[in-house]
Amino acid sequence: MPTVAENVSDLNAAAKNREALSLAAAAAESKGLELDPKGLEQFAEAIDPDWQKRQNPDGRGRQRKDSDEREKGNTTPQSEHLSASGIKEMAFESAEKDPLLAILNRLPGKNGQRWIVLPFGLSEDGREFNVSLRILLETLDELSNQAACMTLDIAESGEIERRWLFVLNGPNRQGEAAAARLTVYLQPELPPTALASLTRELSLLMAIPPERVSVKNQTESFPGESGCMNDWSRTINEAI
After folding, report:
1. pTM assigned to the model
2. How far apart (Å, rounded) are the C-alpha atoms in residues 119 and 46?
3. What does the alpha-carbon distance between residue 154 and residue 61 come to, in Å, rounded to a whole number?
4. 106 CB-side CA count, 13 A
5. 197 and 217 in contact (C-beta within 8 Å)?
6. Scanning 5, 187, 210, 228, which has its CA 20 to 30 A from the CA of 15?
């Protein structure tokens, strides 16, 4: 018979699944599409790096399986050996291998903005990192786009399980001289002194003024999308 803790855990997992599915449905709807249940789950898995861990008892997700296959050929991606360009290449390669995701990433939203989702995975010293990079593009002209918002969602598993969510907001499409703003959400919670210290470190590392860097304990699943505005959060609220 399930214990109270197991029942609570199951309820929490079900709630997080609903949030991921709602976000996936909202993203597809903003592009004028309605996905079938299989497609919706597939898109939710790309959006939520914790999705497969909740589905499978051992927490092995799609990116973890891909890592296992690469390991057999001694090509497992190790984070310490990867450059920014290497991570970019791996993210785009992962998305292009998923036909549904490749199509969704190419479709603009009804308002002309375009969300793209790039899931990938890394490993380091027995730790696994499932990552979902979500980018909101705004059209500047017929030939160029601008990243208005980027969300880097990292689920770390191993001896310690953590969730890191970085949200970077850039200047608006008019190019007004607004500096970038970085917000970081963490799980599990850290004490205020640790949050303040991490804020200072990130400000120096990212060369962003400290008043435009905020580090918080994460209390909701997808704060980046609601903070980045638009159709997603509005449609999610309507769905819920």
Report:
1. 0.78
2. 5
3. 13
4. 8
5. no
6. 228
